[in-house]
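Case study.
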Amino acid sequence: MTGRRAAAAPGTATGSLAIDLVAFGLLASVLLVSAPRLRVYHRITVMDVRLERVWPDGSTEPVEVPRQIGSRRLSLLSAADAVPELSAFIRAYAATDPMVRDAVPGTRFRWTVTYGQNSPRLDRTSEIVIER
Amino acid sequence: MSSQPLADRARAFLFAPVDPVAAGAFRLAFALVLVVLFRPRVLDLSTSHWVSLAAAWLAFAAGVTPRAAGFALVGLLLPLAGEPGLTVSRQVLLFSLLAFSFVRSGAALSLPGGIAPGRPAGPAWPIRLMQIQLSMLYGVNALAKTTPHFLSGDTLVALSLLPNFRVDLSGGTLAAGGLALPVWLLAAGVTLVEYALAIGWWFPRLRPATAALGLVFHGALTQVVNIGLLHVASIFLYASFLLPLIQSVDQKSPPAR
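After joint prediction, the assembly is written out as follows.
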């Protein structure tokens, strides 16, 4: 068989038609499964965090949001995922925070997350209360 | 052509021969793009890893055992795939490299010592995988944007708060060339263009126009948002459609006398 004839009647990549088809199928499956990872930007959750100390007598006092948490947060997750993720982060942070640890028993720390999904309008609220 | 049985059409789609010269040219371009996309941080690797990578890259670029070198490169570059900000572009290129490694790209434009010149470069299916990936790259993003929120422009306004956005869309418009484009028009336009770039390649007559649209789209996008090197990875894959990589099975050579 000449080179020209070989080009007109091409062979396979692996030497076997069956193995070629399996390889194509496997790689096509990988492509399909990994397709969601190809997304770049299409959604965002904008979150604003505020923190208040509630003394045992019920009086409140605004507290600066720790730098590690930040008062403005942006996430490329949906709000359904981003807000619980932030809540878990706040709880983990508060568990070791000296401000909570050294607070008078009965003191509560009220974290208020206002957020908007796919919009800068922060029209939804989620509250996390951590009690000493 | 429409009466051609489906099995024959599938066979032609997957097993049409690859042009050895075009495959060699694609391999050389691929080697350059790999340097552009993976050069940052490559020197952070261990010496043995770095040396293996350089050896595999040289063998791939030179077309000496390019298939083995290509598969080795995929394995050696995999640890760098998760680089923040470059994940998508590197994922795209590594998958393409994996597919392209099945092509006998050393049959032309290679140093002596590899595949004998004139040998067929193999079937089209590895190239088809790269083409499908390019379509999916645009298609997945277009589909994800086809939501009322995105098309209304609200999502883009919020996204423009991200530090890698270069424009302020908070006023609901984008200033471009003395015009104030409403954000909803921008959002709808981006989505429509991505659909066109996902589909247009599959119509041979539309390929030049699709390529031009893609270049304009990516050029404009760089002014709006920094998406790392995804522009480079995407535009490089245009070559999988634009180069005459896949020969028509109808173009039969005259029988050898």
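Observations recorded in class. Chain B touches chain A through 54 residues (CB under 8 Å). The CA atoms of residues 30 and 149 of chain B lie 38 Å apart. We will return to this complex in the next lecture.
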